[in-house]
Design goal:
Layout lengths: L61 H10 L2 H19 L3 H48 L1
Helix pairs in contact: 1-2, 1-3, 2-3
Length: 144
């Protein structure tokens, strides 16, 4: 085969072969014919901003519940911690009414634990005095 100076391959992009007779020529995407008009109409951009009034987060009573758990009543304090955590999570998810409800519940459980711990402490002190008085009374009887 003699080389004549012409390529055996068509000129242009082989991915876009020349169009058959009677059809317009194909152009790669992003290119336009010089006589082709491009009608591009931009739509107006509408931005809608919805603002809800910022509400203060209800107190979750977490510190109170932890102190009650450590020093007063473990079971009631744990329930208070769970409710305090629930109040924080509900507020973070946007459920303000649920957060208020859980906050109030955490406070009530923590107060119940505090009261239970105070009653328990009072009974232990009274019992110690009674036992100490009884021991002193028995010692007096033994030595007399």
């Amino acid at each position: 085969m003699a080389h004549t100076g012409q390529s055996e391959y068509p000129t242009g992009n082989p991915a876009y072969p020349t169009a058959p007779a009677g059809y317009p020529a194909q152009t790669p995407p992003g290119y336009a014919y010089s006589n082709q008009q491009q009608n591009v109409q931009q739509q107006p951009v509408q931005t809608v901003i919805v603002r809800q009034p910022q509400q203060a987060a209800p107190s979750d009573y977490m510190v109170f519940a932890i102190i009650v758990t450590i020093f007063c009543c473990l079971p009631l304090g744990i329930v208070g911690i769970i409710k305090a955590s629930e109040a924080k999570n509900r507020f973070a998810s946007g459920d303000y009414d649920g957060a208020e409800e859980s906050s109030e519940s955490a406070k009530n459980w923590s107060i119940a634990g505090l009261v239970t711990g105070c009653i328990k402490l009072t009974l232990v002190i009274i019992l110690n005095f009674v036992l100490a008085a009884s021991a002193v009374n028995e010692a007096d009887e033994y030595y007399n």
